[in-house]
Amino acid sequence: MSLATGILRRALRLPAPRTPRVTVDRDVAVPMPDGVVLRHDLYRPTGVHRGPVVIVRSPYGRAGWVGTVFGRLVAERGLQVVVQSVRGTADSQGRLAPFDEADDGAATVTWVLDQPWCDGRLGTLGPSYLGLTQWALAPAAGRSLRAMGTLVTASSFRDQTYAGGAFSLDNALSWTSMMRTMAAGPFARSTRLLRGRRTLVDALDALPLRSGDHHATGGEVDWYQDWLRESAPDSAYWARRDYTRGVAEVARADVAVTMLGGWQDIFLPWQLADHAALRAAGARPRLVVGPWVHTSGPGLAAGLREALAAFERAFDGTHGSGGVAAATTEEAPVAVTLSGDGGTRHLTDWPPPDAARRTWYLRADHSLSVQPPPDRTGGAVHWPGTRVDYDPADPTPAVGGPILTGKSGPRDQSALEARPDVAVFTSDVLPEDLVALGPVSATVHLRAATEHLDVFVRVCDVDPRGRSVNVTDGLVRLSPGAPATAADGTRAATVELWPTGHRFAAGHRLRLQVSGGAHPRFARHPGTGDPLGEASTLVPQPREVLHDAAHPTAVTLAVEARH
């Protein structure tokens, strides 16, 4: 056991290693069917010559945290690990085609199963892209695959890329810039790191969007351009990179699936959709969700502990009953730790089957009430609403929330809520704790001069001092006819917010923000119907959010049942 892994073991709260000595075969070449050679490092516990193998496929190289955490640390627990660089990354040959990992994953599985040191049993492990590669190879592995450790990930990245029908600009361009920096030579890499976030921030404001990669990296990046062109839901590009069809196959193969998510992780809604698909197919995956963002160290540590415990159980208990499995003792299939210091809940399923739905309505005095707006009479055609202007030339900024890099997660909303383009509605003080646990949605009735616009909704927790912190949010992009315009000229937009688990403490208040965007997390809406990557004309989009009895704008939370 190295000093580094010893420190990491304590930081991650892992049990003592079972096999402190690990040998590493570096740069092992594996030919793909098309002749391209991919390379991996093979971590083997000293003295182990045959047994199950954990496959880790990464675009982020094999050294550093990837090799240490998912290679050496896992091998110290008695398992062989193949840590492979995906095509076109590190020293694996070919050209990186992001998310297109099924063929190489299948070829890798075939190669590993054919090795004399593999006993025919496989596991997979890793977060984010390393999770997508697991779903990509799972159908080819079939019943050889015994366990999957899928952390902050999903079986398809398409819907995250176009969340709510908009474009997840910050995530897309940040990842593109990071990958280009990693691929650069040492001098170029140092130069780009020195230029830092400032260059990326400038690139996120660039118009048209197709110029963003030039501003961020100095040149055109093929996959970024693909993402701008291939936004249609029926795109063949994304169909090839969609592994959701294999989720049910994993369930039928009786694979032990561990899923780790965060309330403010970029993939949470789609990871929970994978969980629902597994449950519908009869599987009983282990789901753990907590108050974490995508890059959260505590979240990834919890996921690693869960995955290692699952490996130990899945591989016939060959590594002893007092090891990693002892680190996770809860038997409930779902464990969620609430934000807002709400503690942990151990549940039979997700969403909680006994949760109640509670709705808060917007009122003309900018309050939130559980009582619907009063029904007024008198034949008025137009009840006044709340004006919420949106100017894409000065787009409403994103403050916190599920973002890949930068200032993600819970953030003080004071400056944002002071802007004239953000409408704020606040409840009375809560007389007792309120636990939101499950799906969240909003229906926003509005009247607007243009049919092209975005609607952004955010739920916040306001403490007794008046400090507002974001809990969950979501955006939907509107286009002509979607949703339809009613006879009175209004439209009702349904916004699906991130599912949540949060305790609103007694003495706090709920707050709802309504605005026209959250740039650059979501690319600003130009107010036109121009193609995603081409728009450069910016059209102001004034709108009126309605909150009368005929147009009851409201947010609905799943609320924990009181026992």
Notable traits:
563 residues; alpha/beta; twelve-stranded mixed beta sheet; ten-stranded mixed beta sheet; globular; hydrolase activity; Xaa-Pro_dipept_C; Xaa-Pro_dipeptidyl-ppase/CocE; AB_hydrolase_fold; hydrolase
Protein model, in words:
The chain is an alpha/beta fold and 563 residues long. It has 14 helices and 22 strands. It has helices at 3-12, 64-75, 102-113, 129-141, 158-161, 169-183, 186-204, 212-217, 222-229, 236-240, 247-252, 268-280, 297-314, 414-417; strands at 22-31, 37-45, 51-58, 80-85, 118-127, 145-151, 256-264, 286-293, 334-337, 344-347, 356-362, 367-369, 386-388, 422-427, 434-448, 453-462, 468-478, 491-504, 509-515, 543-548, 551-552, 554-559. Keywords: Hydrolase. This is CocE/NonD family hydrolase. GO terms for molecular function: hydrolase activity.
In DSSP terms, counting alpha (H) and pi (I) runs of 4 or more, how many helices?
Answer: 14
Largest sheet: 12 strands, mixed
Strand content: 25-35%
On the 0 to 100 scale, the average pLDDT is: 93
Helix residue percentage = 25-40%
Task: Kindly state the number of beta strands.
Answer: 22
How widely separated are the two ends?
A: 48 Å
GO molecular function, one term: hydrolase activity
Pfam families: Peptidase_S15, PepX_C
Protein name: CocE/NonD family hydrolase
InterPro entries: AB_hydrolase_fold (IPR029058), CocE/Ser_esterase (IPR005674), Galactose-bd-like_sf (IPR008979), Xaa-Pro-like_dom (IPR000383), Xaa-Pro_dipept_C (IPR013736), Xaa-Pro_dipeptidyl-ppase/CocE (IPR050585)
